[in-house]
Amino acid sequence: MSDTFRLGVIFTHPTQHHGPLWKKLSEQSGLSLKVLYLSDENQGGGDRDLGSRSQAWDVDLLCGYEYEYLKDLSGKVPSQQRKSVISPGLISRITQENFDAIFMQSFVNYSYRLTALLCKLRGIPLIMQNDATIMSDGRYSRSRRIAMSILYPWMLNLADYWLSCGDHNEIHLRHYGVSDEKIVRGCHPVDGERFEQSITQNQDEIRQIHKELSWDADTIIYGFAGKYIERKNPFEFIEAITKAHESDPRIRGVMIGGGDLDAEINQRIAALNGEVVNLGFVNQAKIPLYYAAMDVFVVTSWIDPHPLVVSEAMVSGTPPILSDRCGNWGYSDTVRHRYNGLVYPYGNAVALADAMLEMADLENRRRYSEHSKEVFYGQDLYCEVNAFLEVIERIKRNDYETSYGVKSSGLQSSNTVLVKSP
Description:
Elements: E1 5-11, H1 19-26, E2 31-37, E3 66-69, H2 89-93, E4 101-104, H3 110-122, E5 126-128, H4 134-137, H5 142-156, E6 161-164, H6 167-175, E7 183-185, H7 192-201, H8 203-213, E8 220-227, H9 234-247, E9 251-258, H10 262-270, E10 276-280, H11 287-293, E11 296-299, H12 308-315, E12 320-323, E13 342-344, H13 349-359, H14 362-376, H15 381-404
Parallel strand pairs: 1-2, 1-4, 2-3, 4-5, 5-6, 6-7, 8-9, 8-11, 9-10, 11-12, 12-13
Helix pairs in contact: 1-15, 8-11, 9-13
């Protein structure tokens, strides 16, 4: 192994969350990174699940790191990620001459499965990360869960290392037989620096957004942001806002997003008296300002392994209320009940309305907002970069031991832990 560790990343498409991570990793001394994308989704058009009003992301997802778009069997770069996509270029690129390790997220598409096969055949360490939880597995049929109990221990252990992203994710990995020695705690990355900068530079616009969304100076804005699809459970948000508003007329709901349920949502809120408004799609450059204009952020999903909108709201200073079917609550996870937010039982709109009423108290919101920022900064890009550096050092130690036949417990790490400057 050369002095420079060569990390290859196989990824479905450029995203607003991982682009900054690849850039930050590329800045590390002794590390060379290249991303092989399987499609250019989010570049030429928007997320198809966000509906017809969605647009291509308006922030740069490709600066600061080396990348390549791979062609599929038709000889073209796919414009959308697909399960069936096969990128034959992986065969020539995933070699020991090119990479010392490969990172990918899951086995969800055929190209990922080809990647795992190539790594095993060619002796290249495979690093993986996903956001799966036992709760999210509950959506599957009994027969599928039986098949998973047989196949998953074998599949998940094809990876040499796992970067976990939270408490429930680690439970999932252990449940399917991944040993603790293979697990390094990381997180799902959110570019907090971009959010901070945007919010700091646009305080007047944030105040204007808040004013436009409010009835008056006393209005308390509860936000929902995401895809308008069944598993996101948007109608529970609308129902709970309506109930909470009956007890506290200051409470108002604001929805941001789009998708299959857009028309039904508009029909439902048209029957109300303005308690809920649907803003539709808001692109990446402006979304931090809308989070900052909210007083409380709400996620009502009945399946949502690790919704990153929660972290985005938290770094914006907006405390969360979270369904217990989401996978990012726990003692050391993103949302810690009654420390930086509230967790309510999914399907219980009355309990959600009660949580909203509790958040209507200004002191509660201030305390949870302060704690939310504190928790976020333990789970930002630097947390994920450090997890990668830890895995890379383990791979280098293993290579040293294999090459020289000695234990390397005294071998010094060439990478230092990153700490964000105050």
